[in-house]
Design goal:
The structure holds two protein chains of two kinds.
Chain A lengths: L1 E5 L2 H5 L2 H13 L3 E4 L10 H5 L1 H18 L3 E3 L2 H16 L1 H11 L12 E3 H17 L9 E4 L20 H7 L24 H17 L4 E4 L2 H9 L1 H8 L8 E3 H8 L17 H6 L1
Parallel strand pairs in A: 1-2, 1-3, 3-4, 5-6, 6-7
Helix pairs in contact in A: 2-12, 4-5, 4-6, 5-6, 7-8, 9-11
Chain B lengths: L12 H11 L4 H9 L4 H14 L12 H5 L1 H5 L7 H7 L3 H7 L10 H5 L6 H15 L5 H13 L8 E2 L5 E2 L15 H12 L6
Antiparallel strand pairs in B: 1-2
Helix pairs in contact in B: 3-9
The chains are: A alpha/beta, B mainly alpha.
Chain lengths: ~290, ~200
C-alpha cells in the first residue's frame, strides 16, 4: 500500500504532533508514504473565496503531482480532502475550467488528467487496513477508558459529495473501539469545532469549542479524540484560550489525535507521537495507559 | 492614491475600496457617496452575480422552518446569527445590510445547515456565494484570509513552519520530530506567475 502523502498546511507548519503521529503509525502498519516534493497549499478556504479558479489550480496542481508519481493521494486533513473532492467535481463538470487550469499548469510542465484518487487517513485505517487489522496491531489495549469522538464536519459533509465517512459517521468510533476504549454518542458530537470562524470572530469560535468541551465533560468521558488537524488545533491548542475568552470556570478535557492513541496502543514512544506538544492535560491519561 | 481616512498609499481604486471596506467599515457609506456618487456599484454587481450563480433567491428559497438554525453551531454561539436570515434577507433585497453586518463571515462552512434545510437552497450555498462575490469584487475580505493568500503566493503555504510551544515551554521545531522538510514549488517564479495570471482573470470561473 503506497500513497502520495499530502498532510496539508496546518500539520506541516504548526500541528507537528498530528503529522508525526500519523506518519509513525501508518509506516508501522505497512503503509508506504511518498513525500510530495513540490506540493503547495490546496488553496482552501481562502482562494476559494478570493479567486475560485486559482483555488482549482492549486488543488489540481497537487493532484497532478500525485499523478506524475503514479500514486493516489492520501491526506490527513479534512479540509484538504474536501478541497480535492470539490475541485475534482468542478473539473469534471466544467471543461472550460479544466482547460484554463491546465494552461496554467503547463508553466511548470504539469497536467491534470484526473487519474489520481483521493483518500483520507480514516479510509485507509478503517477500510483498507480494517478494524480487525488495527485491533491486531494493538499490543497495549486501553481498559476502562471512555473517549468522546470528534470526526470533524468534512469527514461526513456535505451530503452531495463523496466523503470519507457516512452521513451518520461511525468510522472513528469503530477505530477507537478497536483500541479497547469505550465510546458513545453525546449531544454535540457532530458539531463543528469552529475553526473556520476563528479568524473573523475568535470569541464566537471559542464559544463553539467551549460548548463541545462542556458537552464531553457532562457526558462523563475521560477524553476526546479527533482525526482532523483543524479540530485538534481548536480543541487542544486553543483550549486554554476558551477559559480566558469565556471565563467558563476552566473546563479541561484531554484531547488526542487518533494517531497518537493508536501509536500508544501499538507501544510506540509518546515523544515520537508528539504528545509533549498537546496543550490539553493529557499526561494523567497517558500515564494510565 | 491615498486613503482619505488614514493616509495609507494604495495602488488602485480597487485596492482603495478593499482597504476602506476592511479598515474603515464605519466610513463605507460616506466613502461610496463621495467617490462613487452614492451608487452601490458593488452591491448591484453582487446581486446580479448571485442571481447568475444560484438563480433567483425568492421567498420559496427559504420556508423559514428553522431546521438550519437547530443544526447551526454558530447560532448557539453568536447572538443574533440565524442562518435562514441570509436567504430571507437576500430575497427581500437586503444584500447591502447583509454585507455590512458581517453576518456572512460568521459561517464556519460546516454545511450542517444543509442537513436541516427543507427548501431547495440551503443557507450555506447563499453564504458561500456571497462571501466569494464580496471578496472578488473587493467589498470585504477578512485580513487573515488576505494574508493567507499572500503567503501562498510567496511560498506555496499559508505560513512557514514555526515552533509550537510545548507544555514545558521548550521550543522544538518540526526537525525535532525528524519530519520531512516542508515541500515548496520548485520553480517559484512560474508558480507565482500562474497564480497571478489566474487571480487576475475576470471570468466567472
Amino acid at each position: 500500500m503506497m500513497y502520495a502523502f499530502y498532510p496539508g498546511c496546518l500539520s506541516q507548519v504548526e500541528q507537528f504532533s498530528c503529522l508525526s503521529s500519523t506518519r509513525e503509525v501508518l509506516t508501522k502498519l505497512g503503509v508506504r508514504l511518498q513525500t510530495m516534493d513540490g506540493s503547495s497549499c490546496c488553496g482552501y478556504p481562502t482562494y476559494r473565496l478570493s479567486s475560485p479558479v486559482t483555488w482549482s489550480y492549486l488543488t489540481a496542481r497537487n493532484l497532478a503531482l500525485a499523478e506524475r508519481l503514479g500514486l493516489d493521494v492520501l491526506t490527513s486533513c479534512n479540509d484538504c480532502y474536501l478541497s480535492f473532492r470539490k475541485v475534482t467535481r468542478a473539473m469534471e463538470d466544467d471543461p472550460r475550467l479544466r482547460e484554463t487550469v491546465n494552461d496554467a499548469l503547463k508553466l511548470e510542465g504539469l497536467e491534470y488528467r484526473a487519474r489520481a484518487e483521493t483518500y483520507h487517513v480514516v479510509e485507509v485505517l478503517h477500510d483498507k487496513i480494517g478494524v480487525k487489522g488495527i485491533s491486531e496491531a494493538v499490543v497495549k489495549p486501553f481498559k476502562n477508558l471512555r473517549l468522546a469522538t470528534q470526526p470533524g464536519c468534512h469527514l461526513f459533509r456535505p451530503g452531495d459529495l463523496p466523503t470519507p465517512d457516512e452521513s451518520e459517521p461511525h468510522k472513528l468510533d469503530d477505530l477507537v473501539r478497536a483500541l479497547g476504549a469505550e465510546t458513545f454518542d453525546y449531544p454535540h458530537k457532530l458539531d463543528c469545532c469552529g475553526s473556520m470562524m476563528y479568524a473573523p470572530d475568535p470569541k464566537a469560535s471559542l464559544r463553539v469549542v467551549g460548548k463541545k468541551l462542556e458537552s464531553v465533560k457532562e457526558a462523563g468521558f475521560d477524553g476526546l479524540v479527533t482525526i482532523c488537524p483543524h479540530c485538534f488545533r481548536m480543541l487542544d491548542t486553543m483550549q486554554g484560550s476558551v477559559d480566558n475568552a469565556l471565563g467558563n470556570g476552566g473546563v479541561r478535557v484531554p484531547v488526542f489525535h487518533y494517531a497518537q492513541l493508536l501509536g500508544l496502543a501499538m507501544g510506540l514512544s509518546p515523544a515520537r507521537l508528539g504528545l509533549q506538544f498537546n496543550s490539553s492535560p493529557v499526561r494523567g491519561l497517558v500515564d494510565r495507559m | 492614491m491615498k486613503c482619505p481616512y488614514c493616509d495609507v498609499l494604495l495602488q488602485s481604486h480597487r485596492e482603495l475600496r478593499v482597504h476602506v471596506g476592511s479598515s474603515h467599515r464605519e466610513k463605507v457609506d460616506a466613502f461610496m457617496e463621495e467617490y462613487f456618487g452614492g451608487r452601490w456599484i458593488e452591491v448591484d454587481f453582487i446581486s446580479l452575480m448571485l442571481r447568475r450563480s444560484l438563480g433567483a433567491v425568492t421567498e420559496e428559497s427559504c420556508v423559514e422552518c428553522g431546521g438550519c438554525d437547530v443544526e447551526c453551531p454558530v447560532s448557539a454561539a453568536q447572538e443574533g446569527f440565524k442562518p435562514y436570515n441570509v436567504p430571507v434577507q437576500v430575497s427581500e433585497g437586503g444584500i447591502r445590510g447583509l454585507l455590512r453586518s458581517g453576518a456572512i463571515w460568521a459561517c464556519t462552512s460546516c454545511f450542517a445547515c444543509g442537513e436541516g434545510c427543507r427548501a431547495a437552497m440551503p443557507p450555506y450555498e447563499v453564504i458561500e456565494t456571497l462571501q466569494n462575490l464580496s471578496a472578488r469584487i473587493g467589498y470585504h475580505f477578512p485580513d487573515e484570509c488576505k494574508s493567507s493568500d499572500k503567503s501562498i503566493l510567496r511560498s506555496g503555504f499559508i505560513q512557514r513552519p514555526g515552533a509550537l510551544k510545548s507544555v514545558e515551554l521548550t521550543r522544538l521545531t518540526s526537525e525535532g520530530l525528524e519530519l520531512p522538510q516542508v515541500p515548496s514549488p520548485p520553480d517559484l517564479p512560474r508558480f507565482k506567475e500562474a497564480l497571478r495570471r489566474l487571480s487576475e482573470l475576470r471570468v466567472p470561473l
